[in-house]
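Q: Structure for this?
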Amino acid sequence: MLVRLVIVALLVLVFWLGTRNMKLVPGRFQGTVEMGLDFVRVSIAEDLLGKKDGRRFLPLLTTIFFLVLFLNLTGIIPGINIAGTSVIGLPLVLAAASYIAFIYAGLRKHPGAFLRNALFPPGVPWPLYLIVTPIEFVSMFILRPVTLTLRLLMNMVVGHLLLVLFFSASAFFMTDLGGGWILAGVGTQLFGIAFTFFEILVSLLQAYVFTLLTAVYLQLALAEEH
Amino acid sequence: MLEALIIAAEEKPNPLLPAWYDIVYSIIPFLLVLLLFWKVVLPRMQATLDERSARIEGGIKQAETAQAEAKAALEEYNKLLAEARAEAAKIREQARVDGGAILAELKEQASAEAARITATAQQQIEAERQAALVTLRAEVGSLALDLASGVIGESLADDARATALVDRFLADLETSEKAAK
């Protein structure tokens, strides 16, 4: 749990310093920070939500992206070796934030009509509501936060388990068995290294997916028609 | 983490049921980071972006102004050039006219001068002719008288009649000469 606070301190430090002395022509560090912020701003927020709403929800989206990214990456940092997101608390909190945000956005934009449109999609023959409404209800108000949480949690847990498996197998082959088993140990070690790189990819991808899905939910809630 | 692992090992709780401290330690980082981005990083970023776009727009506007100014200057220059050309043409025309006038005047002066010189020369010639005539008359008279004196053997020099004779003779000569002309 302490890991999270350390990483948050690091994150605060990076972005505080990175934006403390903003220049019109960015240096290397500022350029990198700007690139990260621009990625969320342009390719997620403004792409899906448009300029106005994108700016409104940008703080939330940026927070989710960088918090998930930084805490995912702790899974491959030697000495920490466990992702801050591989314990259910954080994914759950973020999913709850996303959940609250899109329901709030929907109620604010279409007070009254939001829930009706969500549960009784217009243009559907009324007998179908018997089927559609429970499906919509479950998918929107239960499955969305649950899938958000579990997708992130399980990806990070599994990544962690895989790495643990590979590296402890290497240790076992090399030190406990020895002899010809060392070759097998080398093999598992190599796989472990490969999967470490894979974990970097997964970290980025999961951060992106979480943020993107939040943006998509917001977009659906803000859309005129469902 | 260690504490969590120990607890996990002792109690084997369901990993999908979060412990209370897990939630607390998740909310705190979330709120911290949210606050960071919301209140600090994104406003700064937005300010920079705005400033940057303002700078770019300002630059474009400045360039447009400069272009307009350059265009105006070019038009002004062309106008001045046309005016200068017209002026030059006018001056040239004036100069041609003036030159013609000066030439005519000079010609006139020259011809007047020539006429004057001619007249002077004629007068001089006339005067010299008169002088020569007078001298000639005197000499011819005395020569004739000497000759006649020699022929008739006596001096006719002091004789008033002889002078009158010579004069008459010369007058006759002149009249015959005029008649011959």
